[in-house]
């Protein structure tokens, strides 16, 4: 046979159909078209490329052409066109079904991986298919923009193209989850996640990226992913302005809130008297936050709050008078700063403690 790489089974009945059509001058019947589509589907499922298959069909048509020319070249070409089109339709249909199944399998794997579901042995087998080796530690970065993204979003394609161009075939998995971009990379390849953060920030119009710590095994991916999500949530609650957050640099906050009741008591006992101020506690709490964030530099804190230094100093004195703790005193400063952080984490004074 011509083109030995294409088995004859995918051309069963093809030349006979051409002969019958050319002998009668009719178009292909529904049954003949269905047969050709079925051949195309089976060829696609068996992994044969459409280009070689079409070339084989044209080669077979050329071989039998001398016996068909009595019908006229136009009729022969029309019959071949119909037959090849039906075969290609079946091939493309099978390809689309395979792609949809592949995407469904990938999405199921991502869900199982990030939620810690499925048998770990089975999960590890599936992970290798997507470039992950659980014998290594992995870290997860999560990017969140103003608008949710999915696998077909331009931002996803932009970041994926940039990662492939920069790192080639490294074991990196890029996906989306709950409207966010997610990148999973070996824990010792910090350059990958740093580059992902830069590209994700650019493609999401100034979104925010959080990077979890490296952890070993399949459970380590879940742990790192949850750390990144917690960092994003923490950034919203504390109004952190940094575009890239590293869970390793934010460990103090989970420690502070581990005993929620103790933190609530500290906030209530230390900052509760601020409720007696004119305008309530919030302006004075904002003053404390800006003062500590500015490194206890009054001029910088005043600039951030759009106040004069004199007005800021007055507020600090008011805080001292109401709470009995002086923000400028190193002995009192730690208690006030911890209480101020706790207030932001617990949503005080909006929320009652």
TrEMBL record:
Pfam families referenced in this protein's UniProt entry, alphabetically: GGDEF_2, HTH_30
Tell me the Gene3D superfamilies matching this sequence.
PucR C-terminal helix-turn-helix domain
Tell me where in this chain the PucR C-terminal helix-turn-helix domain is found. Answer: 284-339
Q: Where does the CdaR GGDEF-like domain start and stop, copy by copy?
A: 116-234
Name the domain of life this protein comes from: Bacteria
Which family does the entry's similarity section mention? Belongs to the CdaR family.
PANTHER family the record matches: CARBOHYDRATE DIACID REGULATOR, DNA-BINDING TRANSCRIPTIONAL ACTIVATOR ADER
Instruction: State what protein this is by name.
Output: PucR family transcriptional regulator
């Amino acid at each position: 046979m011509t083109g030995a790489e294409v088995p004859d089974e995918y051309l069963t009945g093809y030349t006979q159909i051409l002969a019958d059509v050319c002998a009668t001058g009719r178009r292909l019947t529904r049954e003949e078209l269905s047969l050709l589509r079925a051949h195309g589907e089976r060829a696609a499922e068996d992994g044969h490329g459409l280009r070689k298959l079409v070339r084989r069909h044209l080669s077979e048509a050329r071989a039998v052409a001398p016996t068909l020319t009595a019908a006229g070249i136009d009729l022969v070409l029309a019959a071949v066109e119909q037959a090849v089109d039906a075969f290609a339709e079946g091939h493309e249909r099978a390809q689309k079904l395979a792609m949809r199944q592949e995407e469904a399998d990938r999405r199921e794997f991502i869900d199982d991986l990030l939620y810690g579901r499925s048998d770990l042995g089975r999960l590890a087998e599936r992970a290798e298919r997507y470039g992950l080796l659980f014998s290594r530690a992995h870290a997860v970065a999560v990017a969140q923009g103003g608008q949710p993204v999915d696998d077909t979003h331009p931002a996803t394609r932009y970041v994926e193209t940039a990662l492939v161009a920069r790192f080639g075939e490294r074991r990196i998995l890029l996906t989306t989850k709950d409207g966010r971009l997610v990148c999973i990379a070996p824990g010792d390849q910090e350059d990958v996640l740093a580059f992902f953060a830069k590209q994700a920030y650019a493609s999401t119009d100034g979104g925010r990226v959080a990077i979890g710590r490296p952890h070993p095994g399949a459970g380590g991916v879940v742990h790192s992913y949850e750390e990144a999500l917690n960092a994003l949530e923490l950034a919203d609650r504390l109004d952190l302005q940094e575009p890239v957050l590293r869970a390793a640099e934010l460990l103090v906050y989970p420690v502070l809130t581990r005993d929620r009741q103790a933190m609530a008591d500290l906030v209530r006992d230390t900052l509760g008297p601020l409720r007696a101020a004119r305008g309530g506690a919030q302006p004075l709490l904002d003053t404390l936050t800006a003062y500590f964030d500015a490194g206890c530099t009054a001029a910088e804190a005043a600039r951030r709050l759009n106040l004069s230094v004199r007005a800021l100093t007055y507020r600090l004195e008011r805080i001292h008078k109401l709470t009995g703790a002086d923000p400028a005193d190193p002995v009192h400063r730690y208690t006030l700063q911890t209480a101020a952080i706790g207030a932001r984490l617990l949503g005080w004074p909006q929320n009652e403690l």
